[in-house]
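Example 3.2
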Amino acid sequence: ALVYAAVRLELPDRMAGEVWTAEALADATGLQPARLYRLLRALCAIGLCVENPHAVFSLSDAGRQLSASA
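Structure, written as tokens:
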């Protein structure tokens, strides 16, 4: 369900090659920041994202494989 949600929301494509705070990504996607933060943390738990200092997120190597350009 997590992978489906990430792909359906086009997160791998939006996040590719960049780092994002949950708030900035929420602004770009129209999602609620708190819910997106929880989704990003869950994606980190399964290895698709990495949480860097100051709650900044990026895609892991596995997460990049989910982008349309992969």
